[in-house]
Amino acid sequence: xxxxxxxxxxxxDFFTGKVALVTGSASGIGKAxxxxxxxxxxxxxxxxxxxxxxxxVAHEIISSGGQxxxxxxxxxxAIECEKLIYETVRIFGRLDTACNNAxxxxxxxxxxxxSIENWDKVIQTNLSGVFYCMRSEIPALIKSGGGSITNIxxxxxxxxYPGSSAYTASKHGVVGLTKTAAIDYATRGIRINxxxxxxxxxxxxxxxxxxxxxxxxxxxxxxxxxxxxASEVADLILFLSSDRxxxxxxxxxxxxxxYLAK
Length: 262
Fold this sequence. Notes:
Layout: H1 12-15, E1 19-23, H2 28-39, E2 43-48, H3 51-63, E3 67-72, H4 78-92, E4 97-100, H5 116-143, E5 147-152, H6 165-184, E6 190-197, H7 212-219, H8 230-241, E7 252-255
Parallel strand pairs: 1-2, 1-4, 2-3, 4-5, 5-6, 6-7
């Protein structure tokens, strides 16, 4: 069942018969996107490093009458990304849209106090992982006759945030990578966009919400004075993946409750 019982049937005419891949789809935004694709008729490849949670998402889709498989993959590993796309095409015969969502937050420390290990891990997962996936996704999309990629960046793909140098750098990188790849394939039937969520109610933000006071402080950073919902990000992912966004490529779209308007 799609989060909050929201039915997105208005996209079923486009996604029925299509194959969608969502990285990092065991929870949070990735899970919401996977469920939304499935609710609108797409066969979904759920992929994550967490086999238990990822398998449960695929099972949820199947139990609701949808079509899905789970493939365990670590996007920070280029070979695993190649195998992921190979298996997707081997099983379903095609790939029509991909959402590169997998990412980690890393440690929260001032720049000079951050470890090299944290830098390498965050950049490898959040930025190199998107590149590795696109490197295999794009040829598969071309073979399917064209398609779309939505890369999940962040509001921190546009601005800085204290204590998050590696995460901020990685998300800025995703925006730049998206723009360049979009130009490279604009005449070859591939549209590539990025999305910048603000603070969304997902497991990723749990470690930084120490108490109710901190929660209210972070909420107040958004003019709408609340966290976003994963389903609200999934709505934009669906739109950008569909033919309703046929003239949109190389762009960055915030889902931020007004955060970047300040």
